[in-house]
Amino acid sequence: MDLFNNDQLSLFGASKNLLPFDGEVLFYPHFFKQDVFEQLVNETPWKQDKMKIYGKEVNFPRLTAWYGESDEVYVYSGVVNVPVRFSPLLLDIKQAAERQSGHRFNTALLNYYRDGNDSMGWHSDDETELGGNPVIASVSFGASRVFQFKHKRDKHARVSIALNNGDLLIMQGQTQHHWLHQVPKTSKMQGARINITFRFIG
Ligand SMILES: O=C(O)CCC(=O)C(=O)O
Ligand SMILES: [Fe+2]
User: Fold this and answer.
1) Model's pTM, two decimal places?
2) Which residues of 101-116 are buried (b: 16+ CB within 10 A; e: fewer)?
């Protein structure tokens, strides 16, 4: 291994950019070492949100919970979320993500994918409350799931990565302007997974 090769992933605690252009996605595998999946499942007040499709109410294909430091209300996929206060465990994880990213977060969205049928469709986290070039830290626990990016204009530009227990992914720079991301359904036998995205709402 060439220690001076910048292409190495996680060299000296740094990370190679997973995106080829128009944004920055940093990946830190096995970043959070404590096994907290069960605790997160049990302590979180999960909600089943619904969306309206052609006038029909449909369940989101996942459960969610919204955490915040104060009363920031956040509209996500048309749902108004009133935050719950951070638990000590979430504060620990948040602090670790803040140290690694060099940014402060005041809110967290938790998504609970109960099995391979649960998913999140293509979107950007580009709500105006997040500011121009948001830094978003994503921490995953439980079963492995595929996480995909596709460029909004260059149809050939796609990036795919498996997110495993304890992995940290940081999206920053122009990422939300130019790229969509998703967690597709899978027919593979798949256990449950929790993802936390830490954000700063100004
Ligand atoms: O579950 C994930 O890895 C991604 C979640 C996500 O994109 C979001 O919460 O906006
Ligand atoms: Fe997202």
Assistant:
1) 0.90
2) bebebbbbbbbbbeeb
Contact 60, 120 (CB under 8 A): no
* 120 C-beta closer than 6 A to ligand 1: yes
DSSP letters, 110-142, are EEEE-STT--EEEE----GGG-SS--EEEEEEE
Q: Domains in the chain, please, with CATH?
A: 17-199 (2.60.120.590)
Protein residue with least CA distance to atom 8, ligand 1:
197
Nearest atom (ligand 1) to Cα of 147: 3
Query: 195 C-alpha vs ligand 1 centroid, how far in Å?
Result: 6
pLDDT tens-digit readout, 169-196: 999 999 999 999 999 999 987 799 999 9
**Nearest ligand 1 atom to alpha carbon 140:** 3
163 lines ligand 1 (CB under 6 A): yes
Q: What is the pLDDT of residue 52?
A: 87
pLDDT at position 9 over 60 = no
Nearest to 20 by CA among 166, 160, 164, 190: 160
The answer, yes or no, to whether any atom of ligand 1 lies below 6 A from the CB of 199, is: no
Confidence at residue 72, expressed as pLDDT on a 0 to 100 scale: 64
Complex-level ipTM = 0.99
CB 19 within 8 A of CB 179: yes
